[in-house]
Amino acid sequence: MPQTLDAVAVRGWCALALDALGRDREAIDAINVYPVADGDTGTNLYLTMESAAQAVEAVFAAYPEPPVYDGVPPTADVVRAMAHGALIGARGNSGTILAQLLRGMAEVVAGGDGDLAEALGRAASAAYRAVAHPVEGTVLTVATAAAKAARNADGTPAAVAQAAYAGARDALDATPSQLAALGRAGVVDAGGRGLVTVLGALVQALSGEAPVVRGEALVPVPAGDCPAEAAAAGPAFEVIHLLEADDAAVDRLRAKLDRLGDSLVIVGGDGLWNVHVHVDDAGAAVEAAVEAGRPYRIRITHFAQQAAVEPPREQVQRAVVAVVPGEGLAALCAEAGATTVLTRPGEAPASGELVEAIRRAHAREVVLLPNDAELRHTAAAAVEQARAEGIRVALIPTRAAVQGIAALAVHAPDRRFDEDVVAMTSAAGATRHAELAVAERQSWTMAGVCQAGDVLGLIDGDVVVIGQDLAGTARTVLDRMLAAGGELVTLVLSADAPPDLAATLENHVGKAHLAVDTVVYEGGHQGVPLFIGVE
Question: Are 318 and 408 contacting, i.e. CB atoms less than 8 angstroms apart?
Answer without folding.
Answer: no
